[in-house]
Amino acid sequence: MGMYDSIDLKMDCPQCGAKYLDFQTKDAGNCLDMLQPEEVENFYTSCEDCGSWIRFNRLDQDLVHHFLVRGKDLHEYWHFGEYYYRCQISYNVSPEGG
Ligand SMILES: [Zn+2]
C-alpha cells in the first residue's frame, strides 16, 4: 500500500448513506498532506459498509465552458472551488481491476 494524500472532504456514502467517507488522492506529492478537493484532478474512496468505490474526476475546463455556453444544467456534477467534478460509483471493483 503506497503513500497518498487525504482530501479535506467528508461526505456520506451516496450509495448506502454510511457516514463520512475519507477521500484520498495520488495526484499530489503523496506526503500524507490534507488537500482541498479543488487542488487535485482525481480523488477516490471506498465504502466499507457497501463496498462501493466512489471516484471524483475533474471535468475538462473546455468541456465545462462548452456546457455553459449551451446552457446545460450542471447540477449532476459536483462543484469544488472553480472546478466541476464527475462522481462515478462502482460496486465491488478493486481499483487495480479497473
Ligand atoms: Zn456505502
Characterization of the model:
The relative contact order is 0.21. It contains one helix and seven strands; from the N terminus they run βββββαββ. It has one domain (5-91). It starts with a strand and ends in a 7-residue tail after the last strand. It has a four-stranded antiparallel beta sheet, with no helix packed on it. A three-stranded mixed beta sheet has the order 2-1-3, with no helix packed on it. Helices cover 9% and strands 39% of the residues. It is mainly beta and 98 residues long. It binds zinc ion (ZN).
Q: Given the helix and strand composition, which structural class is it?
A: mainly beta
Number of domains: 1
**Anisotropy-based shape:** globular
Question: Uncertain spans, ≥5 residues at pLDDT below 50?
Answer: none
Mean pLDDT: 89
The rounded distance between the terminal residues' Cα atoms is 17 Å
Q: Tell me about the biggest sheet?
A: 4 strands, antiparallel
- Which bin fits the share of residues in helices? under 10%
Number of beta strands: 7
- Neighbour order of strands in the largest sheet: 4-5-7-6
Order of helices and strands: EEEEEHEE
Assembly level: single chain
How many helical stretches?
1
Small molecules bound: zinc ion
CA-based gyration radius: 14 Å
